[in-house]
Write a structure and sequence with these properties.
It contains 8 helices and 6 strands; from the N terminus they run ααβαβααββαβαβα. By secondary structure, the chain is an alpha/beta fold. The N terminus is likely disordered.
């Protein structure tokens, strides 16, 4: 797989084989050229070496839950390749504050002192955005450049998997993926995006986290520990 600078990228898990052909498709080669220019002349998030971090941390067969957002955070130091997550020491963005609020209301989780969601990824939660890159300060600036087709392919491959999983689609770009989820073994949950502009229009009170765990338990699978530890 090819990153923006032309290096071959090894994700180190099953995604390497599953997505090998995708990275040879004409649309992706065009996207790659676009990204090479963008990273050269502009400030783009996340760092090019973290674009596929979500896929690196959540191998195909281990995924239990998919949380799908819109595009990465566009503020300095925020995005690091996992939807809604920020690295330790970075102030918690307002969308993630709202996610933690819903978790508290839904499952009684306390609000942690950091916004690093890697503990979720390590439990099989794929934290994917519909677009994987964005210009600094310009939300949605890399939409329509090819990422949607790429993430469609990721979702289609997950949809084909016989083992059940939960899909949480937050916001309209994420909800647009619902058409791809035809496998009735899976649980599909939709809600408004947790951003301050829309959280009160259907994200708060959605109780996706408890619904996900109830579904996993019913399937004989281990529930996700949604509590992010303090550091």
């Amino acid at each position: 797989m090819i990153c923006g600078d032309g290096r071959m990228v090894n994700l180190g898990n099953e995604w390497d084989e599953l997505l090998a052909d995708e990275f040879r498709q004409p649309y992706y080669l065009n996207l790659r050229e676009f990204l090479k220019r963008e990273y050269y002349i502009r400030t783009i998030y996340p760092d090019m070496y973290e674009i596929f971090e979500a896929l690196k941390l959540a191998s195909y067969s281990q995924i239990k839950v998919v949380i799908l957002g819109q595009d990465p955070y566009h503020g300095p130091g925020q995005a690091h390749g996992l939807a809604f997550s920020v690295k330790p020491g970075v102030p918690i963005p307002r969308s993630l504050v709202n996610i933690f609020k819903e978790l508290q209301d839904d499952l009684g989780c306390y609000t942690p002192n950091n916004g690093c969601l890697i503990p979720w990824a390590k439990q099989g939660v794929l934290l994917l955005n519909a677009s994987l890159t964005v210009r600094a300060g310009q939300a949605g600036s890399h939409r329509g450049k090819g990422w949607e087709q790429f993430t469609d392919s990721v979702i289609q491959r997950l949809n084909e998997r016989p083992e059940p999983m939960v899909f949480m689609l937050w916001g309209n770009p994420a909800k647009a993926k619902e058409r791809l989820l035809t496998n009735r073994r899976h649980l599909v949950l939709t809600a408004a995006h947790p951003s301050p502009l829309s959280a009160f229009r259907g994200f708060f009170g959605c109780r996706h986290f408890s619904q996900a765990n109830a579904f996993l338990k019913a399937q004989g699978m281990e529930e996700v520990d949604w509590q992010i530890p303090n550091i």
